[in-house]
Amino acid sequence: MKTPSATRTTFDYRAPEDLDGLADALGTARGAVSVLGGGTMLVPDISHGTAQPDTVVDLARTGLSGLRRADGEVVVGAMTTYRDLLTTAPAPVPLLRRLAAGVTGGPQIRNRGTVGGSAAFANPSSDVPAALLALRARMRLLSPDGVREVPASDFYTGPFATVRRDDEALIEITLPDPGAASFGYVKFKLSVGSWPIVTATAVAESGGGLRVAVGGAGRVPVAVMLTEPADPADPEWLAHIRERVESELDSVGTWTDELAEGTYRRRIAGTIAARSVAALRGDDERR
Amino acid sequence: MTASTPAAGIGASTRRRDGAALLTGRARYVDDYRPHGLHYAAVVRSTVAHGRIRSVDVSGAETAPGVVLVLTGEQAARHAGPIPYFISPATRGGREVDIRCLEPELVTYVGQPVAAVVARSRVEAQSAAAAVRVEYDSLPHVLDADTALLPDSPRVYPDWQDNVVFAKTYGAGDAEEALHGADVVVSGEFRIARSTTAPVEPRGYVASWDATDEALTVHGSCQNPHQLRYMLSASLGLAESAIRVVTAKIGGSFGLKMQGLPEETLVCLLSMLSRRPVKWIEDRRESLMSGAREQIHRIRVGAKADGTITGLVNRIVADAGAMTAQAGWAMCNMSASTFPSGYRVPDCRVELRLVATNKPPLSAARGFGKDAAHFVMERAVDLVARRLALDPGEVRRRNFIRAGEFPYRTATGLNIDSGDFAGLLDKAQAAIDYPAVRELQRRRREQGRPLGVGIAFELTPESSDSPGTFVSGFDTTTVRMSLTGRVTVLTGVTSPGGGNDTGIAQIVGAELGVPVEWIDVVQGDTDRCPTGFGNFSGRSMVVGGGSAALAARDVRATLRTVGARLLERDPEACEVVDGTVRSVSEPDCAVPVPEVAHAVLTRAFAAAAEVEPVLESTRAYKPGNIDHRPDELGRIQPYPTYSSCLHIAVVEVDAETGKVDVVDYAMAHDCGTMINPDLVEGQAWGAITMGIGSALTEQLVFDAGGRLVSDRFKSYLLPRAGDVPEFRLEHQVTPSPFTMHGNKGAGEAGVGGAQAAVANAVEDALAPVGACVRSLPLTPPVVLDLIEEATR
């Protein structure tokens, strides 16, 4: 197929039509492979010359779109778009619907951007990775050798880096506790057009326990288990959650880009985490 | 606007003439011009902040697919001379260097054009440009203006003795003595970070060289077509008459598209050398390199115990980046001379130093330096109020020039034409319900939620004139009526997107006595329009409107004389109204204007025997109040009009994250007579939003090597609709005695006032902890630092 004319370099383009075809494409691809989801990141990067793949494997025709229930779990196809999350009713994963509602960039981004794409791109500033950590997601990776599953907590190895090999594609994300008794989600941005600086997702797990995942602040998303506070405004508890979050961030390293230094993200991470817990409890939710 | 507003005439919010074309995508921008055989240019830019070019290897580019021409700086210098400065620093006692379309020797910033490629397609041009190999002998670079002033700093231009481009002291009286005698002296160092204008449409040019006729046609997204023609004539060695410049529809400019930038000459040269039409459209990364402002002010202000300001000393260090032939470097003059704004402070001294650094140059930007003066002056007034525990509104009221004192000469020599600054404060405070918002603030503080109110006054000198430069205080318009009564207005002013063509049509319609629907307005074509100066300094409605009115009156006089003859009435007893010439006393005794026009042009020896049979006039309009004769202190007065406005911002500060939300906003604005209030408001909305953006989120960030890292809209954060509240706009009209319609510049006012109001509001919100705002932008990390520093 002809390379799109807006790019400076040429590459092979593969658009397999099922999972067998995908495995074959991944196995036979030439050179450096980029897997294309909705294209909201990869296409601009190719246009700007910052990504120069030899082969692009497009998931568009693989049928990996949509959410389905299986054994009490929900399986999210990698090509499920933000718009799919917003329009599927009733929402099988309320947290993801909430997350999709806060994605800026207009209809183009919501129509094109995919859960799998965001999950696999591993941008520390994206909303999706930390939410998947909060939901204890399992990432299903397909390669010519078959399928393997990796917990979200092991999936992320660094900024824009995951355990996914070059001959693998993220095909599905399994959420064991999709309804999670209740959740609180807070996203902090510098302005409407800004990438998220810190996101926090608090989940009251069905089996009991409070799980809080923080994105944006660290080189990879982090999650902590806490006991539910009697009063989420209690200064002692606030100090506790702050300490737990900061300690996790220190172990993975903070994330710095041109929008905000890691030191700033670390400073507010505990606050945003605490706000997600307050939001979970229906308390005053700010920003 | 209310339903009773008339649809036409001066003061009506007539709909934009190009509104339908803009909304339906039919407006033609420069990128829409695709002449037959069009090729595309790409620019190879310096990858080092400072260095000498050792070699340029074009072999890879020359053999790349689709390439027809690769040009180095050395080759370009054989065909094109230096680009003339829009405003020459040397003639003002400063330094300048030759600016070339492609730099052949010494690069002074990352991004400076050093080579260029022409190819069949944009992609091929960009691929080939990437294959050009340039080697540099790197030199030490300096990115910060304070550092650039140190004796051991690297020199941006090695043959200069230091990095100072321009230095001047402004003011009158004895400021130090005034401070000495003051009850209190407040001081502060204020830093304004580099931001930019970011119009929706970046710059772009299509140059078509006709080798047979040896003629050059340039379509460009630019503000000043006649200046561009002159500059191209000078740099390319062509007769001006061989060049036609046409400004396409412009998708915003804000000063960025004033002339003097290397690519203007470059694209034309590429067309001449390749003998093909060549297009270059700037991409966003290139567009974001242009700085709008970056300054440090160290100010001391003395006041009496009652809040009367007695003296002001300010030392300004302005960061020019590298040198440019564009007008951007000159903005710092206005930063200095706009002090002490609309306040009666007779003893002032403002010392300005403009300093070169190894960053991309400044380009002119809405506010043109005045914004910095407003941010700093309004911060200083608030510091006085805070020190004396006085209401900031009352301190302003005490110091404002009184409504009866105009024209008023300020310490820096500006002669403010008119105004009612206390009246603006009344209107803005009423709009925001000042007592109620202070009460809200009190209650929020009890809840531990910081809410602040910031007041800022803004004085906007407009329609400037600078002798011997392209900054002209007058302009010229031709009004021409055809045989059928159709009117063509050819004007020397251009519209960067604000819609002054609609305002000019309103003026011509009112003066000529014909419906605006009969009127076509032609702008921005050097072959059709009279010599003019385009758009800058809020001038277009003052001088474009004034000259259009004069020309329209000439045509009207002929219509009236001949119409009266057709009606067999005395011309003195007739008028031109609603497209007819009629008797004043007998309105039914009337003849349609098209019939009169027909008579003038076909019955020259009968009905029109007593007039010169021409329905056309070209007139220039020079407003009053400009005086270039230096006074005893050497001060000149380059501005006819001074718009004024007063801003009140209400902000909430999230004390845990430092995030500032602007929750309410009022601006009372006075640009004298409003020709079209909707267009005035449109400009005000944009300018306030621009001010809020540069006050809170917009910042061009460079890495240690001088490379711009905030090079897209995910890293350079413009405000979006959700970041600003609905503004409460109020108007006050104090007509200028020095302009034809009493109007003053509108369109620039808003940036500095908004920056200052937001900054003052943030400090007011944090007053309980005692934080002091000293810099822009007030990003969340900066605000959180302020809070921590104050509570430490």
UniProtKB/TrEMBL annotation, chain A:
The protein's matches in SMART domains, at most eight in alphabetical order, are given as: CO_deh_flav_C (SM01092)
The entry lists its GO molecular-function terms as: FAD binding; oxidoreductase activity
Q: Which InterPro entries match?
A: CO_DH_flav_C (IPR005107), CO_DH_flav_C_dom_sf (IPR036683), Diverse_Substr_Oxidored (IPR051312), FAD-bd_PCMH (IPR016166), FAD-bd_PCMH-like_sf (IPR036318), FAD-bd_PCMH_sub1 (IPR016167), FAD-bd_PCMH_sub2 (IPR016169), Mopterin_DH_FAD-bd (IPR002346)
Q: Which domain of life is it from?
A: Bacteria
The residues covered by the FAD-binding PCMH-type domain are 6-180
Q: Known Pfam families for this protein? A: FAD_binding_5
Q: Which UniProt keywords apply?
A: FAD, Flavoprotein, Oxidoreductase
Indicate yes or no for the key word Ion transport.
no
Does the keyword field hold Iron? no
| Protein name, as recorded | FAD binding domain-containing protein
Source organism per UniProt: Prauserella cavernicola
TrEMBL record, chain B:
What Gene Ontology terms describe what this protein does at the molecular function level?
Answer: iron ion binding; oxidoreductase activity
Q: Which Gene3D superfamilies match?
A: Aldehyde oxidase/xanthine dehydrogenase, a/b hammerhead, Aldehyde oxidase/xanthine dehydrogenase, molybdopterin binding domain
- A Pfam family that this protein carries is MoCoBD_1
Would you tell me the protein name for this molecule?
A: Xanthine dehydrogenase family protein
**Which controlled-vocabulary keywords does the entry list?**
Molybdenum, Oxidoreductase
Q: Which domain of life is it from?
A: Bacteria
Every Aldehyde oxidase/xanthine dehydrogenase a/b hammerhead domain range: 24-140
SMART domains listed in its UniProt record = Ald_Xan_dh_C
| SUPFAM superfamilies in the record | CO dehydrogenase molybdoprotein N-domain-like, Molybdenum cofactor-binding domain
The answer to whether the entry has keyword Membrane is no
